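Re-run requested by the PI after the first attempt was lost when the workstation crashed. Everything re-entered from the original request form. Ligand of interest: 2-phosphoglycolic acid.
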Amino acid sequence: MSPPPRKLVAGNWKMNGLDDALAEALELARELTARPPNCRVALCPPATLVHRLHEALRGGAIEVGAQTCHAETSGAYTGEVSAEMLRDAGAHLVILGHSERRTYAGETNEDVSRKVLAALRAGLEPVVCVGETLAQREAGEAFDVVGGQMDGSLPEALQGRRFALAYEPVWAIGTGLTPAIDDIEAMHAFIRSRLDERFSTSSAPILYGGSVNPKNAAAILGAREVGGALVGGASLRAEDFLPIVRAE
Ligand code: PGA
């Protein structure tokens, strides 16, 4: 059996980052060049910074990703950015189906599935997000919700392709709350078995996301079936993100 893939620790800058954010990324890059990380490291800035970050980080240990893409290649879709454009700008990954996009942009599982196809077409590695709300967890529906999101958001075309899943309980995002390690492990085991059923050869890492910080990162990254972390707020500053990367 081949060894498990290296974990992936990805920063999701969301709608944050102007010119001075490049300095944070460069500081992180310097640290990781001096002492290479044990995991893959990615930064997903807003679309405006993808190309500049790609140029600034060229040849280093940090991969650049985007936060969404349109399903079509090009055309009359004012305001949209295609997967091909993001690849052209230097992105290698793309976060898809983040709960903020599902909530604020009304993205459905079907939309996410089409975007996954676009990412694969363009040569971007999709990082597909799933996760339940607090009401759903309290109603005992967390596994059904996540299973349904996986069924709807992951097209068959992922078979044999490189991709990642991110389990992000909605109630843990930006709140400082995290599930108990046992609950993370239970959900990740469920996601793994569901992936195994559908994608026989998949070794896709299953990231955990939601209030990961320098204090809880080691415990979370050390949990069974946790293949990395998707980090929001704590990825904006090198001094917060670096200890999370180093926790692996
Ligand atoms: P957070 O966000 O780390 O700020 O909770 C995580 C995410 O939304 O990916």
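Saved to the shared folder this time. The mean pLDDT is 96.
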